[in-house]
Inverse folding.
């Protein structure tokens, strides 16, 4: 049994390409449609109702491409909209919160830090998921709003990013967290600087690899993986193509890009 | 003769409140409708076609509120969309580029720096407008993408903003520009740090005051100012209300906010 329909991957912009990268490594034979809502990026500074509406529009676009499952490769959309997406979708929808929590629980000795956007941290979803069944775990949350623009600017080393990271992370370090969830798809781009500020012995938890495992298990369990002999394809949809798109995307995906197709998420009739 | 219809003021988000502030000071008897496209902010990192579409949608919303004129209080939208807005609008449309250029030409000794978003600087509009009729003027442009998130984060003093400003501005200082156009409505929030990096003797040109003069002249010339005895009103429309909206808005406007109304710019039928 096999299913050659693509896996839909959705992010507010290009940060989710770090998740796509892990999926391409774990499941190279699958076909992918990646959708970045680059016209309305970022989501992480916006309100819950807006994020939920944007995510629903993105899901409709992916469903119109006949995807067999959807990966919400955006922590903000996963934190604020996953339940409503799962309720309304005819195909399985995977978020990035649960895999990150699962990965943190594997390594922590009991004190977990979580960093993310204002909306993700404000939602409390990580804390809720970490403490579900593990009420003894201490959780310390911190929103880091400048990390996304720093990563998009490609300013990932030197004194300025170091000081910004110090500004956001010193409390977490001083509180003695032993594991830190990188709760935003942009943050792996800043991993070196975050590791330097947190110091040795703090596990940095990047949910992309654990998520890819979860997607692989899902495909295996319902026999919907693509045929073994297939070699996968990749389509890239965006709602805006800024000047520096190709340059940015290569930084996040780590390979040459396919041609991009421009889509209008706003013209869809609600339904 | 008098005209009590409101003046519509439009920005990608809340940066334009610095322009509204100057309008409220110069023309306190006018009624205002301010529209911030907070669901899709920022515009400055996005492509020309997207910015033009967003600006057209904002203009339609303001026209539906029976405004007598429109102020595009966003340098990115002014740089990329002013011509099409003016072509399609039945009422006068003012941008912030021309007033900034006019103000710079009054003070410069011949070497002007321009800072703005990636889209504004990429458009070349400031340079074009500065050199029109003044081909002898030297113009040096620099995009400063992190200034907007810094201003929104309220991180306007200390070593980090200082170093970021130094990173973007040192070339302009070393080249000897004598006047610097703050080509983004967020930048007045960072004025102290920009002034410190540029040093004494460099004029910082903030277009808000000159724009307010231009709007006042426009109203006077066609007899459409509001009656002298009137005291003005202010309505605030936004496409998203993030958690920290009130806090941010007060930083930019410098006074208590009226109640905000949520609008959906995307549901409008084109035409």
């Amino acid at each position: 049994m096999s299913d050659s329909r693509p896996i839909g991957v959705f992010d507010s912009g290009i940060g989710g390409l770090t998740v796509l990268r892990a999926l391409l490594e774990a499941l190279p034979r699958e076909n992918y449609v990646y959708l970045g809502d680059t016209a309305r990026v970022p989501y992480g500074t916006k309100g819950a109702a807006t994020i939920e509406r944007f995510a629903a529009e993105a899901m409709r676009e992916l469903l119109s491409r006949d995807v067999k499952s959807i990966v919400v490769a955006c922590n903000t959309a996963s934190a604020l909209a996953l339940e409503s997406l799962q309720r309304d979708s005819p195909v399985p929808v995977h978020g990035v919160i649960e895999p990150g929590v699962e990965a943190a629980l594997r390594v922590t000795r009991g004190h977990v830090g979580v960093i993310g956007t204002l909306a993700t941290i404000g939602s409390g979803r990580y804390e809720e998921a970490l403490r579900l069944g593990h009420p003894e775990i201490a959780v310390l949350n911190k929103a880091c709003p400048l990390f996304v623009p720093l990563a998009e600017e490609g300013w990932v080393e030197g004194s300025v990013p170091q000081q910004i990271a110090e500004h956001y992370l010193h409390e977490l370090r001083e509180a003695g967290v032993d594991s830190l969830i990188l709760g935003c798809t942009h943050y792996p781009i800043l991993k070196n600087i975050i590791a330097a500020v947190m110091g040795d012995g703090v596990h940095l938890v990047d949910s992309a690899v654990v998520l890819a495992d979860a997607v692989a298990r899902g495909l295996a369990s319902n026999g919907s993986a693509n045929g073994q002999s297939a070699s996968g394809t990749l389509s890239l949809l965006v709602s805006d193509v800024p000047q520096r798109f190709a340059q940015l995307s290569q930084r996040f995906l780590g390979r040459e890009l396919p041609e991009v197709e421009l889509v209008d998420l706003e013209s869809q009739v609600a339904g």
Chain A has two domains: 7-95+208-267, 98-207. Strands of chain A lie at 7-11, 32-36, 69-72, 93-94, 111-116, 138-143, 179-182, 203-205, 234-238, 260-262. The CA atoms of residues 139 and 161 of chain A lie 25 Å apart. The longest helix of chain A spans residues 159-175.
